[in-house]
Write the C-alpha cells for this entry.
Amino acid sequence: MSNPPPPGIYVPAVLFFDHNEEFDLPAIKAHVLRLAHGAVTGILVQGSNGEAQHLSHDERKQAIAFTRRTLDENGFQNVLVIAGTGAQSTRETKKLCADAKDAGASHALVLTPSTWPTQMTTDNILRFHREVADASPIPTMIYNFPTVTAGQDLNSDIVAALAQHPNIVGTKLSCGNIGKIHRLTSRFSSEEFAVYPGRSDAYLFGLLAGSAGVIGASVNLVPKLHAKLYQLGRTAKLSHGDWAASKVGGIGGLKAVISKHFGYGQPHVRGPLKSVDIDSLQGNEYYKVLQELIAMEKAL
C-alpha cells in the first residue's frame, strides 16, 4: 500500500509568466518561498490554478522540477510537491505521472477526462483511474472538480471504490460538497485515504468532519492564516477567500493581487484567460475581503 500525503495545508500554486508568456522564474521562486515560509505542508504544481492545460509537457516537467529544486536549495526539503497530471487520454496521463516522478513530485493529482463526458460512465471512470494508478510510479489522488470536467461530479461511492486501490491514496474535492467529505472521512482515516476539501469555504467544516486539511486557491494569498486555523482550530474569514478570489477575475485577479501586495510577478495569463489590472479592483467589495485577509496574513 502506498502512503497518502500527510495532513496539512496544501496550495495549488499559481505560475507566473513574463510579458512574453514565458516562465517568470524569479517570481515563481519568490512565490514558492513565501508559501514555504507560510508553513504550507505541500505545493500542488499544475492544479487548475497552475494553468496546466496551457503548458507543454516540457514546461510541466520544468515547473515541477524548479519548484522541488527551489524548496530543496532553501531548506524546505520537508515540503511536498504534488503534481497535477490530468490529461484527456489514459496514455498521456500515465506519461505525465512518470514525468512528475522524474521531476521530483511525491504524488500525482489526476482529473477525470472530460472531452467525451457522455462516455464517462461509472465503469469508464473507475477503469481510467485504476489503469493510471496501476502504471504510476508515484501514488495518485482523485481530483474531483466538476467546473473543469464538463460537469462530471464523482459521487462518494465512486471515490470510495477507487480508494480500495493500493496506489490511490486520497482525493481533492473541489466540488465543495460537505456531505461527500463527511461520508468519506467517516469511512477512511487520513492515514488510509486522505480527503482534502478543495475550497477554503469547506475547510473548517472538513476539519470538523475529520478531513486531512485543505488544498485551496486562497492559500496562495494567506498561507499563514490557513496554517493558523489548522493548528489552533480558530476561524478567521477564510470561508470568504475562494469566493472573493473568484469574483476579482479568477487566476488573473489572483496574480494581480499577489503582485500588488507581495511585490513580485506580473498578472500575465495565457489566453483565452484575461489579465486583470489591479487598479480596476478599487472599490470592489470582494477585493476588500481579500485585502482584509492579506492584512491579517501580514500580521502573523
Summary: The chain has a mean pLDDT of 92.
